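Per reviewer request, we include the raw input and output of the structure prediction for the construct analysed in the revised manuscript.
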Amino acid sequence: MEQVTLTRRELYDLVWSTPMTTIAKKYLISDVGLRKICISMNIPLPRVGHWEKIKAGKHITIVPLPEKFEAKGEIILKLRTENDPAPSQKDPVRALAEELSNQNIPFKVPDILTSKDSRIINAQKALTEKNQYLHRGLASSGRGNLSINVSPQNINRALCFMQGLISALEKRGHQLKINSEETVVVVSGQSIMIALREKVKIKRVPNKWGSFDNIYEPEGSLIFELGKYGAKEWRDGSKKLEERLPEIMARMEIEAKSNIEAEIERKEREDERMEKERQRKAVELRQKQELNEFRKLVVNADRWQLAQHLRAYLEQLEKQAEKTNTLTDELKEWLNWAQHKVNWYDPLINAKDEWLSDEDKNNIFVQEKNIGNSFFNHMPEPSPYFPRPWYTRDK
């Protein structure tokens, strides 16, 4: 039988370029077995929806291969031949349930209640108390206890089932917690709501007023709910609920894994959205900075040009005064004052000025006309076609 030896890097490249089911058809290994090998070699796997995204042309995130791993650095895969049966396309839950059943896990529900767990004891007290009110024929464990709603005849069976469930959960490293309003299992850090109830049959019987009353009759079969509003249910059928613990455990673990992957994907989308928003704001800020710098350039150029005009004017004024013999000491003093103001205004000199240090040089020629009303202070300049009303004109 032909076989292929793959290094850890080659196996990583293979599982990120080809779906697991396709690899399982080529090599004599199941997709579940290949997944377990990748996990043991610390090889990250594509998340749920990865191949669908590729088909749709959407963005995907490839997790880099970690350097740290403790298993062997290579794997031998045997090529599948025509004589080898095709890999079974088992439901992931069923496949994991079979795997769990073959492990040393106590998937057994006792016939007699032996647990000293306070959660079991408290639920038993609540279900068997003398003043227990039967709602629709069922006893309820009430708030703050294991979520159980069964008929009095099924109380012991329900508690024994919960005892077996708690034992199996703890063996797998999971937890069962009771909140004020609900009971949850914590699998891989994910909290999933659970409840155990008995199926009830409703009968409509006539009453003395000519209408009908609803009579609730417990049927004796138990239903285990997983998820909010019983998203997934298991009930007595060809197999008793007690025999379906491996399947229930498998569903919990796959559900938790799916929730983790969905949360990771949601976080990646959120991070991507925030990064795009950050880039958008960075571009917007840069555009504003560029525009402000350009406006500053234009304003400084206008200031410099005006400063040149002023200097030329002062020079001609002084020459004219010398020519007409009118260059008095008072005029000389004024020319010195004017030259200093020009130097203060010139962006290439920016001389200090005792009296104008707080003025905005870029807006000293922008004036507001105050006519005693803030509404008219911001009115636009008059147009020859739409002149201002008489009450806004300067007096």
